[in-house]
Every structure is written in C-alpha cells, then in structure tokens.
Give the backbone structure.
Amino acid sequence: MSAFDPQAQLPSALQALGLDLSPDAQSQLLAHLALIAKWNRVYNLTAVRDPAEMFTHHLLDSLAAVAPLARHFQALKGSTDAVQLLDVGAGAGLPGVALAIALPEVWSAAGARGAAAPLRVTCVDAVAKKAGFIRQVAAELGLMNLQATHGRIEALSLPAMNVITCRAFASLSDIVHLTRRHLAPGGVWMALKGAVPQDEMAELPADIDVFHVEPLQVPLLQAQRCLVWMRCRSGAA
C-alpha cells in the first residue's frame, strides 16, 4: 500500500471546500501538518497520529471554516482596521493556524469595490508547550498575522475580538462564560462542532442569540460537522 500523500490530496479537497489558495499558502498548510507530526513525537499535541487522519480530522476540518468566515466578513460594513480573531483552546493551532494562512485578510462590503483588512489571529492555550508550538509555527512559516499566548483564557488581557472561535474546547455555555469579556461590541462566536449540539444550545444564557447553525461538508471525512454562530442579543459583549 502506498504512503498517504497530502500534497496530492490537497488541491481537490480545497476545490470541494470552494477555496482558491496560492501554492505558497498550500505549502504553509502542509508544513504546519508536518510540524504537528514532528512535534508529536516528543510532545502530546494531538491524539491523532495517522497521517491520513491528521489531514482530514485536523487540516480539512479546520479549513471548512474558512469560506463561512469570509462570507461573514463580506456581509459587514467596510473597514480597513485590522480584524481580531481569537482561537481559544487552540491546541496545535486548530483552526487558528489554518485561518491565518488561508485568510490573511478579509474583505468587507465597503461600497462597490470593497475594502481589505488584515486578519490577526491570536491562539490561546492553557498548556505552555502547545502555545510554544504555535509560536514556532508562526516563526518557521513567516506568519506575521499569527501569535500565541499561554494562559487561562478567563485570566488574560487581550484586545477586543471581532470573532472568537474554538474547536473541541468546551460546551457552548462554557465558551460564552469564559470568553465574553474578550468579545468586541458587535462581535460573534464561531464554534466548530460535530452534530448540532441541541442540548448545549438550550443551556445558553438568555442574552445569547444563536443566529445561525451552519452545516459543513468536510472532504474525505464521513462525520457530521457544523458551525454554531452566536452573538449577544444587545449587540455588545
């Protein structure tokens, strides 16, 4: 049996996700995957060890959020200010690194031409070695729009975030409780989940609005995935 070749699989997977990424961006995504595999030999960054599973369960699963996130920003009023995104409980940088690579800037509806704003991604993890790994990824891949912070999210001082995202981090109510102080006025949460978490949605505080549950189709992955979009009903955190 031939070895799994992520470089051969990536172009068709990107096409299925509706993403048109440059060769450099594709190389960076694969380099991140290779760094996870390398560091995993010493540090327990992820329980997934099989290269094919890492490709689908980590890389493609993270990339599935790129197009929905881009559409979210396109619907907003235009601004050239930097857009702040927080990936909480980032682990090996999932999905934060993939978002920083695939979406270095976002386009919003500012007049007929639109306006580009840089996307700045902050990955936070309570485990020092995981935050250190993401810093190493940013340095090796030259990702100037990516930074990592070690600490418990509820105790950190961070810029106000336009989007807070997470993947396999906590329940929706815990996500809101732990991070709402970091959400900018008018900001949103974008939680990556498996099956639609009806029970978790029912336990959310009364002032939190689940304004969209977006099903995702992850190439080569036979599992349910969705994005749960949330915001404060008042429009401010």
About this structure: The longest strand covers residues 115-125. The chain has a mean pLDDT of 91. Residues 6-232 form a domain with the Rossmann fold fold (CATH 3.40.50.150).
